[in-house]
Amino acid sequence: MSVFLFGYNGLDNIGDDLMFKGVLDSRPTSERKYTSNKNYKIGCEIQVGLIESIFRALLSSEFMIVGGNVFSFERKKSYLKIMMYFFLFMFRKIIRKKNAIDSVGLDLYESKYWRIIVLSTLSLADDLSLRDELSYRFVRRYLKKSKVVYKYDRVYRERENLFSDVRVKDDGDIIWWVSHPAAKKNSNKIKMVNYFNTISIDRKILFFCQDDMDIKRMKEIVSELKLSSGKYEILKYENTKMSEVLDKFGRAKFFITERYHGAVIAESLNKNWLCIPFSEKLNRIKPNYYKL
CA 275, CA 191: separation in Å to the nearest integer? Predict the structure, then answer.
């Protein structure tokens, strides 16, 4: 048996890496797990080149999409991306291979044509799990399938395994999880200042950045809040082991996050958090969301 896993793992995004690791750990150890070549490996997956990736995607016993923004509308090319999955899933249905989609949220504020294409693609999945209630209610309204389930995010579902080695305390810094697209929302400046004024300033702020664009965004925050050099540090995922990052998260006093998985990880570690939303998926998650 073999599975081809498609996700945004191995691309310096800790949320996607943790989702992928959660999937790997939950699969049978005897199963061969393939994925396309990335910057680095997460676990026991077998990375393959472009030609073999196409072959595996078409003919593996199972093809699984692992979370991420696969079903989000980002640009006009997103239509082409979804149509590609539609025809891939259709072909695999014909040859009786399994299609699975895990831990996804849907962009429901685009045109009806986008929603029709997405629903048509989802209808070809044998197993489909949604990570937010709004997406789940939308899909169940049109697809009356017993295999459509609401399971929260994969990171939260696998929290006992993923964070088993993390020492959870509150003697560390305030984590500020940076996301460069948040800079496009002017209203976020007000929230940013208000949040900073509500938290204890006796702790240092540890800015968690995942790429150089996040670093640029972090500098804007530092300037806006007029932080002196001794009041903050930078933790860049690109240069740090995942275990070291999770240790910092486990010791954090508080989370401010501009990314979805910042909230999910804070929830998983029972940390208090606030978000600066710039996308619809962040608007759908509130403190204690997963504890309802």
Answer: 9
